[in-house]
Amino acid sequence: MKALLFINGEAPKKLPSLDGFDVIACTDGAFHYLKELDFPLDQLDFISGDFDSHSGEDSGVYQDKFIFTPDQDKTDFQKALELLLEQGVSDVDVYGGSGGEMDHFLGNLTVASFFKEQLEIHFFDEFSTYFFIPNSFKTKVSDGQLVSLYPFPFTKNVTTKGLNWSLNGEDLDQTKRIGTRNIAVGEHLEIDFDEGNLLLFLGL
Fold it and tell me: What are residue 61's phi and psi, to 5 degrees?
């Protein structure tokens, strides 16, 4: 099952198509910008969160969609992912993960790393799509497309094919060397690594 999830970062400039999603949801903070964007709120399957930023003015209309998740030891994003897992979701497209307060953005990446063995999570924003990749990964790209590799926090023995600046069994580490702002050469990208976590950013 595939889900579309809106969370409380920067609102998307353009709303995605709702086709192909089994579950459509948002956190309580994202609910505000969806209203402003004239999103069809009746298409939401649930609205989750602690509702600390929600006025309750829509409670009469959408109350049946509210799921109260008050646990302050987890972010609203983490709790929403847990709800999606309970519903049998395996693939999640996330909008609103970046922008706004940058501690939220870093927190969202960390939360996504918690779930990388259970969920395929793809973030989308104005500039790129980004996600954690498995140890052996292949995808189609566009010649000249911006590609960034970001260790989280380290990635061992990285080898790439299809990048202008190739890696050949090299290590990446947040404190020593990262792999941002590379360029795709051709239409196929291959990345292999032995250990660690690796975020792939593909420019739009």
Answer: -85, -40
Cβ atoms of 138 and 188 within 8 Å: the answer is yes
Give pTM, 2 decimals: 0.92
For residue 40, whether the previous peptide bond is cis, meaning omega lies within 30 degrees of 0, is no
Alpha-carbon distance of 71 to 49, in angstroms, equals: 9
pLDDT digits (tens, 9 = 90+) for 76-116: 999 999 999 999 999 999 999 998 788 889 999 999 999 99
What is the C-alpha separation between 36 and 79, in angstroms, rounded? 24
User: What's the pLDDT score for residue 32?
Assistant: 87
Query: How many H helices and E strands in the chain?
Result: 4, 13
**Alpha helix ranges (H) inside 43-144:** 59-62, 76-86, 102-114
Block residue for tokens 């000249």: 144
Nearest C-alpha neighbor of 123 from the set 83, 91, 80: 91
Tell me which residue of 86, 88, 44 sits closest to 66, measured CA to CA. Answer: 44
Q: Is 31 left (phi over 0), alpha (psi -120 to 50) or beta?
A: alpha
Q: Where are the alpha helices (DSSP H) in the chain?
A: 28-36, 59-62, 76-86, 102-114
Q: Provide the 10 A C-beta neighbour count for residue 182.
A: 20
Task: Tell me the C-alpha to C-alpha distance, in Å, between residue 170 and each of 43, 113, 142.
Answer: 46, 22, 24
Residue 63: helix, strand or coil by DSSP?
Answer: helix
